[in-house]
Amino acid sequence: MKLTLPLRLVLTVALLSLAGSASAQDDDEKLKPAEPDFSLVSLPTSLRLPKFSSAFRVTHRFTGPLTGDFGDVVGNLFGLDSGAVIGLEYRFGIVKDGQVGIHRSSDNRTIEFFGQYGVMRQRPGRPIDISAAVAIEGTNNFRDSYSPSLGAILSHEVGDRAAFYVEPMWVNNSNPLPSALADHNDTFMLGIGGRVRISSTVTLVAETAPRLRGYKPGSHHGSFGIEKRAGGHLFQLNFSDSFGTTWAQLARGGTSSHDWYLGFNLSRKFF
Amino acid sequence: MRIHIPVIVAALALFTACDENLSKIAGPSPNLEPTFASIQRDIFETADSAGRVSCIGCHTSTGRNPSGGLNLNHDVAYEQLINLASRGKPSAVRVVPGDPDASYLVQKLEGAAGIAGRRMPFGGAPFLTDGQILILRRWIAIGAPRN
């Protein structure tokens, strides 16, 4: 069979695009030492999830504060004897550079659906990676208090040593009161965070999310932690001033008493 | 395809601007809103489904002297409340626009420490719910307009 010129061109373009796609897909499957996970502590990272791959995460925030009498804190095993706010999360790569997921937090039985799409990759001449992100969450198992969110994730990796993030986010209906009873019903916040690798598998991580406009009760969310990667697993021990793991929860901030709490994240990549 | 998915999802999120339901807060007076007209109608003049009695049973000039000198009849209630001293506690102002904590009306309904006489309603529970008081507080916080 003789191939016509147009058919040859079509086949060539198709093969080239498939090769490029496969290459990017392969890149996404490679470990990025400075960005080993899809989250910092609670804020998202711009890590791409390969198409048709998935990842799972458990978040755990003990509700016993670490402040107060040291003897009491030790007696309470740094909050472990108190209850905990637990989150389960699963995400799936639906298209190249695009992922969707679901997060369920025991805080008000909140379910969050989220999506993220990598718009621009960091490369020589382009120092920033940009992703767009959307989410909508509802309390009482997604039956009450819906809060849609929009945001962007801007990141910069410094070699394979560190990664830094700036994440402008807008959360609608962040105030649990009706808007008729509140001055503000949405929040604009700026997530800021970073991760620094201190050994081949150990990284330090920190983040904060100051609320710049709108509803902003209590203290701004802040977290820091240390994490250890073991294959496709990442174990993170963290300290936070809030229990928030969803965007609206982050918008509502931490406690007004400025207490800090112990917690951990466990994540697993399935690729 | 690269652009369409995030644009569509973002648009969906934007168009899903949400709000809480005021009637959930209002509880036994589901039509209550932070306006004077609504407070007059749903709090002062009407009993609610929880069994709370209306205020104008006692605070009226119709056929009696209004209790505490506070007349909540429809045509005079606003003037009787705004920036006017309480008769039972002359140092207190019934409604201080913009300051619900300083408003004696709120203190009497919440049963705050230091009030003269009883918490309202005079006959006791059921009192206004936290949600009903929250709506009343909001009306005062936004300046207690005659709306």
Write a structural description.
- The complex is a heterodimer of chains A (271) and B (147).
- Chain A has 271 residues and is of the alpha+beta class.
- Chain A has helices spanning 5-29, 70-75, 139-142, 247-252, and strands at 54-65, 84-95, 98-105, 110-120, 129-138, 144-158, 162-172, 186-197, 202-209, 211-214, 221-230, 233-240, 261-270.
- Chain A has 2 domains: 1-30; 34-270, Beta Barrel (Porin).
- In chain A, a hairpin with a 3-residue loop joins strand 6 (144-158) and strand 7.
- The longest helix of chain A is centred in the first third of the chain and has 25 residues, at 5-29.
- Chain B has one domain.
- The termini of chain B are far apart.
- The mean pLDDT of chain B is 89.
- Classes of the chains: A alpha+beta (271), B mainly alpha (147).
- The interface between A and B is medium-sized, with 26 and 22 residues.
Keywords:
heterodimer, A: 271 residues, alpha+beta, Porin, 2 domains, 12-stranded antiparallel beta barrel, B: 147 residues, mainly alpha, 6 helices, 0% strand, elongated
The second-level CATH architecture of the largest domain in chain A is Beta Barrel
Question: Which CATH top level class of the largest domain in chain A fits?
Answer: Mainly Beta
From the N-terminal CA to the C-terminal CA of chain A, the straight-line distance is 40 Å
Q: Largest sheet of chain A, order of strands side by side? A: 1-2-3-4-5-6-7-8-9-11-12-13
> What amount of the residues of chain B lies in strands?
under 5%
What structural class do the secondary elements of chain B suggest? mainly alpha
How many β strands of chain B by DSSP? Answer: 0
Please state the oligomeric state of the protein chains shown: heterodimer
Cα-to-Cα separation, first versus last residue of chain B: 51 Å
How many whole angstroms does the radius of gyration of chain B measure? Answer: 20 Å
Level of helix content of chain A?
Answer: 10-25%
Approximate shape of chain B? elongated
Query: Ranges of chain B with pLDDT <50 over ≥5 residues?
Result: none
